Predict the structure of Methyltransferase domain-containing protein.
Amino acid sequence: MAFDFNMTRLLLHEWRSSGIEFGDTACLGRQGLHVSSTRLQRNLDEVGLKHISSEAILKEGNGYWEPLIRCLGGKATDSIDISDYEGASVLLDLNSPISDSYKNKYDTVIDSGTLEHVFNFPVAIKNCMELVKLNGRMIMITPSNNFMGHGFYQFSPELFFRVFSAENGFKIDNILLFEDHYIAKWYSVKDPAEVSQRVELVNGVPSYLFIVARKVAEKEIFSIVPNQSDYQQISWQQKSLSPYEIMQKSREKFSLARLVPYQVKKILSQALNIYKVLRVGIFGPRLRRDFFRRIK
């Protein structure tokens, strides 16, 4: 991916609201600014940077990301990639552990669409976390839904709630969900461990997560292997009914559905599926308010 309209807008709003000090910044891949000068200027104006010319930013970096970060206080900028075909300044294969010389090197590490393409994700995300200095930040925009075939992976919010945890020396400042279209709505995402449910989403549009996590302590990352929160709940540890017992209990309940012929149920089921597809495609996702809260 790249620094597109939504990425630049989110990055600028996060900079204004939380006062990110970019300092020494690394970006995974040498990302381009895939946004028109008009739309980039609109994003700059929104956060009070009307004096900065978007056209100058695009020209200075020949369409790459570095000048934008320098406008926000970045002193040094590195692009990390497995090859230098786009002019990356640091060559690393994130599938393998990084050397000590790269650890605690950057105030901010940005992933705007790289880690979903890296096969050895646990090693790659650990590398990124180790690149970050104490009190520095990891910023990510990553595929979350309806991106099959884009990369190796598309990610659930819970993965990042469990990865950027106190056990690993991190604290999450922000996790937002947004759909991939112009001026997308932003939704904050609840931690499944807090609501004691799986925070799930079914929609019909490619959707991203925007994550900001801060390194608050030096810890050995993944010394405790992350687990999905509901597998840690006490209810999962209690004795449950066997599949046969569940089936027997369902048979004991009288249901009007038994009186409906199979062919009728099949037609009704198909009609319901068509309705769900059309509803999501036309009206957008039905987001549970206890899971997702619109913030912008």
Q: What stands out?
A: Residues 262-283 form the longest helix (22 residues). Residues 82 and 93 are 5 Å apart (CA to CA). The mean pLDDT is 89.
